[in-house]
Design goal:
Chain lengths: ~170, ~130
């Protein structure tokens, strides 16, 4: 992972608008985080290939199901935020995080994880602040995945979307 | 091998189902309530599941509660946990340390997510469900 090195010169404190060493350290950490963010892959093809042992059928199922399902999950997440349901937000973000991990969608996974954490601490304003990023990252992921696998229209053959009927159990 | 996959995430469900379908019927439950109902019906039909993949963090009824209920159902029919279904708890990698002790006595294995095909096949071999 490549990261740019960041240097920040600390001058002597001024009476007004002084930058304390602690604030400066925080600024460096924050800037480093921004740089690292861009270093996190949108889609890590090598990782999913390795995890699913180059099983193309499995990978296609993972991609198809993810692209079909996650927009609905994001919509539900937005609703939970709107109604102030912190537990709902946490669970939904957790689901999006898990699904993103399965697709090796690292940037989306990280943002969903941040929303999950914010909801767990009851900070729905912080969760809402991440929503736009989540949507942007999902769209970027969709483009990246379809470019990688060149599969604009895929279907999950023979797989059930919901629970089997009782007669099947 | 007859399997029940209990998982609220669509992608995980389908990937697990596709993997496990290769070894026999793999049914799906999308939450804890459906899971206990599926297990109850399978026990009543005398066609119990050999393997249950059970997600820990689910809405309404979580995996821990479902695990207890499944073992209780088996016990009522005189099936001890060593002879009951092999139950594999699935959880996010970053939570595995928090949960491993809690389920130790009732479940047989853990599967961390994101799903790794090699890990899953390895666990199935360890549980002697596949050769």
């Amino acid at each position: 992972m490549k990261t740019r090195s960041i240097t920040l010169e600390l001058g002597p404190p001024h009476k007004t608008g002084a930058t304390s060493p602690l604030v400066a350290v925080a600024a460096v950490a924050s800037a480093a985080e921004i740089v690292n963010e861009s270093a996190i892959p949108i889609f890590d093809r090598a990782d999913i290939m390795e995890r699913l042992m180059d099983d193309e059928e499995l990978i296609r199922i993972a991609i198809d199901s993810f692209l079909e399902d996650i927009p609905q999950q994001i919509t539900a997440l937005q609703e939970f935020i709107k109604t102030g349901d912190a537990i709902g937000v946490e669970l939904k973000a957790h689901t999006i995080k898990g699904a993103s991990a399965n697709l090796s969608a690292e940037r989306l996974r990280k943002t969903a994880g941040q929303i999950e954490h914010a909801a767990r601490t009851g900070d729905l304003a912080a969760a809402q602040a991440q929503l736009a990023d989540l949507n942007v990252q999902f769209e970027a992921l969709r483009v990246a995945v379809l470019q990688e696998f060149r599969t604009p229209t895929l279907f999950v053959d023979g797989m059930e979307r919901n629970t089997p009927s009782r007669s099947e159990i | 091998m007859k399997t029940l996959i209990v998982e609220d995430d669509f992608t995980s469900r389908l990937v697990l189902q596709k993997l496990l379908n290769r070894f026999g019927a793999a049914h799906i439950a999308v939450n804890g309530k459906e899971a206990t109902e599926a297990v109850r019906l399978s026990l009543e039909a005398n066609e119990p599941y050999n393997l249950i993949c059970l997600d820990i963090m689910m809405p309404e009824k979580d995996g821990q509660q479902v695990l207890k209920e499944i073992r209780a159902m088996e016990e009522r029919r005189g099936i001890t946990s060593t002879h009951g279904a092999k139950i594999m708890m699935t959880t996010a990698l970053d939570r595995i340390r928090n949960v491993s002790d809690a389920y130790y006595n009732l479940c047989d294995a853990y599967l961390t997510k994101p799903i790794r095909k090699e890990q899953l096949l390895g666990e199935l071999r360890t549980l002697k469900l596949i050769s």
